[in-house]
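re: the backbone from monday

yeah here it is again, tokenized this time
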């Protein structure tokens, strides 16, 4: 009996400790629920289409190397009543492109979305071009939008006979509000009885805090009918039951404005290519002694001319004089007293290391078992 009571007391104390960080005020170090979760089923859909960009200043596709561009031009002209099947087009002002866009959730008929236009052939630049009417298809091969308009290209490409200058990517452009939605995307925000909130950064503690914040809000706002209306299913999903006689859109806006304190695992992310190091606030280390030095070996080759003695029938040769220098920089043996992020950063800064040296030390700490965090090397 005592063991059962102790177990129940432990569970209650754990739940209370987690719930203490559930609700915070806007002035505290917390975030809104709407900023860390997404509603299951409310998402955007990807669209793609094939089209032509016209009006280029000689920077379009070469029709000999891009036969699909020539076929597209002929098909477009035939739709307009012009037959060029037997002709030999020589234009350099047209480029075949792939058009992509994201259809936001709940986009209705007539709304506009941005599109991205990318060259498909050997065009050198899309600057100054205009995209002609291009249907955009979804994954079900249905047309959801139609794109058309003038491109905005950030890069440029200038060429001469002996030199060329290129900045950015001139073969990709963007059209703001360049597509008109013709069909609504699948899925609707119907008047359902429950919401399923998905955490963008899955974590058990954060899921429980979100559920507790919603339950506390429901008890204060809706009384008995709002008690325990949220349940954390796992580290990613929180189920929320809508109180009766409350519109779903209004209820979603209410819980989205609640403030919680999200939790994050101890994690260190290292990008060895750029020397970027990101250390989470929850990272802890044990007390370790660290030294780091480097050895530089320099090999110098000096040419030396060797001439033979007079009347010796010898030849003049070039020999090399090799000199090897070994420079060993002193390594500071420092003690890093672990506990928190501030101590770790100060200890590494006192050693005066560059990013490659810090990366090597962090990896060695992980191998020694002194770094109590997940190490991610990109």
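seq for it, each position gets an aa:
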């Amino acid at each position: 009996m005592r063991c059962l009571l102790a177990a129940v007391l432990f569970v209650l104390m754990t739940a209370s400790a987690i719930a203490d960080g559930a609700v915070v005020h806007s002035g505290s170090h917390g975030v809104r629920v709407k900023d860390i979760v997404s509603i299951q089923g409310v998402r955007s859909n990807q669209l793609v289409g094939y089209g032509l960009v016209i009006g280029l200043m000689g920077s379009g596709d070469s029709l000999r190397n891009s036969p699909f561009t020539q076929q597209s031009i002929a098909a477009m002209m035939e739709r307009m009543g012009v037959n060029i099947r037997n002709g030999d087009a020589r234009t350099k002002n047209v480029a075949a492109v792939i058009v992509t866009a994201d259809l936001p959730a709940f986009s209705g008929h007539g709304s506009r979305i941005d599109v991205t236009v990318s060259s498909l052939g050997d065009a050198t630049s899309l600057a100054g071009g205009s995209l002609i009417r291009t249907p955009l298809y979804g994954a079900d091969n249905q047309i959801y939008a139609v794109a058309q308009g003038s491109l905005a290209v950030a890069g440029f490409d200038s060429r001469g006979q002996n030199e060329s200058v290129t900045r950015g990517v001139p073969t990709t452009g963007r059209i703001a509000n360049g597509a008109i939605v013709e069909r609504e995307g699948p899925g609707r925000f119907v008047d359902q009885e429950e919401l399923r909130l998905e955490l963008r950064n899955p974590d058990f503690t954060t899921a429980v805090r979100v559920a507790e914040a919603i339950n506390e809000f429901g008890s204060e706002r809706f009384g008995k009918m709002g008690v325990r209306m949220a349940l954390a299913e796992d580290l990613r999903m929180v189920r929320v039951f809508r109180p009766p006689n409350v519109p779903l859109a209004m209820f979603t806006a209410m819980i989205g404005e609640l403030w919680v304190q999200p939790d994050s695992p101890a994690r260190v992310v290292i990008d060895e290519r750029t020397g970027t190091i990101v250390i989470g606030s929850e990272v802890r280390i044990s007390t370790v002694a660290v030294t780091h030095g480097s050895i530089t070996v320099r090999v110098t080759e000096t040419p030396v001319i060797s001439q033979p003695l007079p009347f010796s029938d010898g030849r003049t040769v070039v020999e090399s004089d090799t000199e090897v220098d070994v420079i060993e920089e002193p390594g500071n043996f420092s003690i890093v007293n672990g506990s928190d992020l501030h101590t770790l950063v100060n200890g590494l800064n006192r050693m005066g290391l560059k990013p490659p040296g810090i990366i090597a030390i962090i990896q060695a700490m992980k191998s020694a078992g002194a770094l109590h965090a997940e190490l991610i090397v990109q």
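DSSP finds six helices and 23 strands in the chain. The helical segments are 2-20, 67-79, 204-222, 248-256, 341-350, 355-368.
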